[in-house]
UniProtKB/TrEMBL annotation:
InterPro entries per the UniProt record, alphabetical: Gfo/Idh/MocA-like_OxRdtase_N, Gfo/Idh/MocA_oxidrdct_glycsds, GFO_IDH_MocA-like_dom, NAD(P)-bd_dom_sf
Domain GFO/IDH/MocA-like oxidoreductase residues, every copy: 132-258
Protein known as: Gfo/Idh/MocA family oxidoreductase
The Gfo/Idh/MocA-like oxidoreductase N-terminal domain, residue ranges: 4-124
The keyword Oxidoreductase is annotated on this UniProt entry: yes
GO molecular function: nucleotide binding; oxidoreductase activity
First and last residue of the signal peptide: none
Gene3D superfamilies from the UniProt entry: Dihydrodipicolinate Reductase, domain 2, NAD(P)-binding Rossmann-like Domain
UniProt keyword Oxidoreductase present: yes
Keywords: Oxidoreductase
Length: 323
């Protein structure tokens, strides 16, 4: 390949700003086709974004000879089937997070990519953003000493603003999303923990429904012991009062701490003194990751997040929710 010519399956809200426009802003990359089951919406997206082709059938897009790579941005229920179909067509895949519904499905996707020898990347895009790379750098430099523990708190009221709004609110249907708002937000956070701290020794958690008339767990608590001895503890609750919402992660070391939000732009480092690092918001939050994916597909760089990487996150979510 000399140029990655993308086709998007599922050109919904998440692709409007976060990812879609970035495919035409990255060197060696071009968005050539989009697909959505609603033909009118697919045509509208193509017209507004200047995309030459649109489809209402995923198989037609996958088999279009002008498309040589696939970005899957549907709800998780469709991720496995579309990924494997694209891999069988010999086309590398960039699939949204969560990778799929559960770890068993993620294993099948990863095995398919390995058996077919076709590239697969997962959109844990915080790995490529400057703010989270800065945290990785601070940890590598031993800025806060030996890492002891991590405390993560994600507390949100019902219908939080962090969650993208859709017509059918599929995120709270576990058959489609895999497990509600926890499954939508936690992949970002858990992937970063494994990116920072490496292999997991063991993990466990609890999940419960505290609101009435809900199909999903709205409170999840999980613990991880990493092989290097770091201990992680996280709490996700989606039923607190608006005034109690919180988005905080604190990494404690022997010499100090690093505090940061998952949805924000400022890092605070506390040792003998306090330093802050503030980052400019990204216009397209996935663009740095897409750059790395394009390089990988063009054999110019490593895989920025493999199926094996994302499978670890899926297993952690299954452990926390006792699937």
């Amino acid at each position: 390949m000399e140029e990655i010519r993308w086709g998007i399956i599922g050109c919904g809200d998440v692709t409007e700003v976060k990812s879609g426009p970035a495919f035409n802003k990255v060197a060696g990359s071009k968005l050539v086709a989009v697909m959505r089951r609603d033909a009118a919406k697919a045509a509208d997206y193509a017209k507004r974004h200047g995309v030459a082709k649109w489809f209402d059938d995923a198989s037609q897009l996958i088999n279009d000879p002008e498309v040589n790579a696939i970005y899957i941005a549907t709800p998780p229920l469709q991720h496995e089937a579309y990924t494997i179909e694209a891999l069988k067509a010999g086309k590398p895949v960039y699939v949204e997070k969560p990778m799929t519904l559960d770890a068993a499905s993620a294993e099948r996707m990863t095995e398919a990519a390995n058996q077919l020898n076709v590239k697969l990347c997962v959109a844990h895009y915080r790995r490529a953003q400057p703010m989270f790379l800065k945290i990785k750098e601070l940890l590598a430099k031993n800025t806060i000493g030996d890492i002891r523990l991590v405390r993560l708190k994600m507390l949100q009221p019902p219908n939080p603003v962090l969650i993208a709004k859709t017509d059918d609110n599929w995120r709270i249907n576990p058959a489609i999303s895999g497990g509600g708002l926890f499954h939508d937000l936690a992949p970002h956070q858990l992937d970063l923990m494994t990116y920072y701290f490496g292999p997991v020794k063991n993990a466990s958690g609890i999940a419960t429904k505290q609101q009435e008339n809900t199909e999903i767990d709205d409170l999840v608590a999980g613990n991880i012991l990493f092989e290097n001895g770091v201990v992680f503890s996280g709490t996700w609750c989606f039923s607190v009062a608006p005034g109690d919402q919180a988005d905080s992660c604190i990494i404690y070391g022997s010499k100090g701490s690093i505090t940061f939000p998952m949805f924000g732009n400022k890092i605070k480092v506390t040792t003998d003194e306090t330093k802050e690092f503030v980052f400019e918001p990204l216009q397209h939050v996935q663009q740095p990751m897409i750059e790395k994916v394009v390089d990988y597909f063009l054999d110019k760089g490593p895989n920025p997040c493999s199926g094996e990487d994302a499978l670890i996150t899926m297993k952690l979510m299954d452990d926390f929710t006792e699937k």
